[in-house]
Design goal:
Elements: H1 2-19, E1 23-28, E2 34-35, E3 50-54, H2 61-69, E4 101-103, H3 105-111, E5 117-121, H4 131-144, E6 149-153, H5 157-169, E7 172-178, H6 183-190, E8 195-199, H7 203-214, E9 222-224, H8 230-235, H9 238-247, E10 255-259, H10 264-278, E11 288-294, H11 299-306, H12 331-341, E12 344-348, H13 350-364, H14 370-384, E13 394-398, H15 421-427
Helix pairs in contact: 3-13, 4-5, 5-6, 9-10, 10-12, 11-12, 13-14
The structure holds pyridoxal-5'-phosphate and zinc ion.
Zinc ion binds near residues 30, 43 and 46.
């Protein structure tokens, strides 16, 4: 009996080791303590957040670059750098990523940028936001841990991404959102057939509720992608950094403008860039990371401007609902990164967000959701303030699709006429 128990434990350990590719442990971002890979997110010594630690394939950058370039045109080309099994590309999943990096010369001209300006357009993902990246990695962890229900607390985009990914993977889903989200996001969260629960409260209330559910027998067997699977989930954002550099011809951009909700994406983009440098895939040069928030939910921007290390929570009130997290878990790390890289954190008002959505649509044919209005608006503001250098290579992230936040932009026909040439002539548009 005892021997059999040991043998099956060994098999489990091997399975777990191969399930997570190059990942070897979770490590505490505060005290560095290491724990085995598991569905845990907080350090037992100091309660700091855990992140995935790797044995990365160092030593053969040319070989690694060739391997990546011959991989699939989605995030799984970077499987050697992610906590996923080597055969992940052939499993049932949404295959997000490798979205377009758009050279934005028209926008550059309007903004007075003389260097290269690019928009990384993540509206091209399967559920039309960057969230498909993080969910795809979390789903693999959910499978490895034997979870049968996939869940999350969401500001909207994540709920849709989880619903769709669970459907493809053959898992049940039950997701939680604030009750007052945009119609486009509610429909997308519901259409994939999982359970959708509206909570009377803000996102921060939803998040607190989910933390309670995890500790309760009601939540047994549940993988919350952004709570107990958060260390794995976060790693999906590294692929934005990998793609941007590969699409620039294996080159670091000089400046990146990244939206902040919880701050996870921004911190993992920085992690991804540092990995590429360590792996020898890009030349080690300085880069600067700029965070973007909406004024109506700008706790990180506030702390940055006040020279604080702590982020004081706020009650969100903005049209940029996908970024409306009043108590951002990764806020202090975002401050560290902005300061270490010589970047900044800035915010824009709701009218500035709408103007920026229109500007990007008019100049580049990209219809961004409000989060894209935030990054483009902040880019404009930082250029005008002389904080962003217009002569350098800058990448601005658009993380979601304008079709999900239609109410933000009151656009309609230039004129409505009878179907006759006479009426068209009168309208003066010929
Ligand atoms: C979730 C989200 C982000 C970033 O979220 P973080 O919590 O900061 O990682 C950015 N843009 C959109 C559209 C999102 O849905
Ligand atoms: Zn710790």
């Amino acid at each position: 009996m005892r021997r059999k128990g040991l043998a099956s434990m060994a098999v489990q350990a091997v399975e777990r080791a191969t399930s997570f590719g190059p990942a070897v442990a979770l490590s505490c971002r505060e005290c560095g303590e290491r724990v085995p890979l598991g569905p845990v997110f907080a350090c037992t010594s100091c309660f700091g957040p855990l992140e995935v630690a790797y044995e990365l394939p160092l030593g053969d950058p040319e070989g690694l670059r060739r391997r990546i370039e011959s991989g699939p045109a989605n995030i799984w080309r970077y499987a050697p750098l992610l906590p996923v099994p080597a055969d992940v590309a052939s499993r049932p999943n949404l295959r997000p990523g490798f979205t377009q990096l758009v050279r934005a010369d028209n926008l550059a001209r309007e903004l007075g940028v003389t260097g290269e300006l690019h928009v990384k357009d993540d509206s091209g993902n399967p559920t039309h936001s960057f969230k498909d990246r993080v969910v795809a990695v979390a789903v693999e962890a959910a499978r490895a841990f034997g979870f049968t229900t996939l869940s999350c607390s969401s500001t909207g985009n994540l709920a849709g991404a989880v619903g769709a990914a669970a459907a493809r993977a053959g898992l049940r889903s039950c997701v939680f959102i604030p009750h007052d989200l945009e119609a486009g996001k509610v429909v997308m969260a519901a259409v994939y057939g999982g359970d959708l629960v509206g909570i009377e409260g803000t996102y921060d209330d939803v998040n607190r509720f989910c933390s309670e559910l995890i500790g309760d027998p009601l939540g047994e067997g549940w993988g919350f992608v952004n709570v107990n699977l958060r260390p794995y989930y976060g790693e999906g954002s590294k692929t934005l950094a990998y793609e941007i550099c590969e699409q620039l011809g294996w080159r670091l951009p000089d400046q990146l403008v990244v939206p902040i909700a919880s701050g996870s994406q921004l911190t993992k983009i920085d992690k991804g860039l540092r990995e590429l440098i360590a792996l020898g895939l890009v030349e080690d040069r300085p880069y600067r990371i700029f965070g973007a928030q909406a004024e109506g939910c700008s706790p990180v921007s506030r702390a940055f401007k006040d020279g604080q290390d702590v982020v004081r929570p706020v009650k969100p009130d903005t049209i940029a609902k996908s970024l409306a997290i009043g108590n951002p878990a990764d806020g202090p790390y975002v401050l560290d990164i902005a300061r270490r890289t010589g970047g900044a954190v800035e915010d824009v008002t709701d009218p500035e967000i709408v103007d920026a959505i229109r500007l990007l649509a008019r100049t580049e044919g990209i219809f961004a959701e409000t989060a894209g209005g935030v990054t483009v608006g902040v880019t404009r503001k930082l250029l005008e303030a002389g904080v962003l250098d217009p002569s350098l290579t800058t990448v601005v992230l658009n993380t979601g699709d304008g079709l999900k936040t239609l109410d933000a932009v009151a656009a309609g026909p230039s004129v409505t006429i009878r179907p006759s040439l006479g009426a068209f002539r009168e309208a003066g548009l010929g």
